[in-house]
Amino acid sequence: MTQNYKTSRIKSVDAFRLIAITAVIIIHTSPFAFSVPDHRIYDFIAVSINQIPRFGVPFFFVISGYFWGQKVRKGFPPLQTAIHTSKRLLQLFFIWSLVYLIPYNDLVLFCFNGTFNELIEKFSKNLQQLSQSPVTSLMQGSKSHLWFFIALLFSLNICAYFIKQKRVKSLIFISILLYGIGLIGKSYSNCFFDFNIQFNTRNGTFFGLIFYVSGYLISKFESDKKWLIYGMFLFLFGVFLHFSEVYYLWKIEGVSPWGHDFVIGTYFMGTGSALIALSNFEFPYLNLMSELGRLTLGIYAIHYIFVDLLQPYKINLESPSYEVINVILVLSFSIISALAISKISINAVSLRS
Question: What is the pLDDT of residues 213-237, one digit of tens each?
Answer without folding.
Answer: 999 999 999 888 999 999 999 999 9
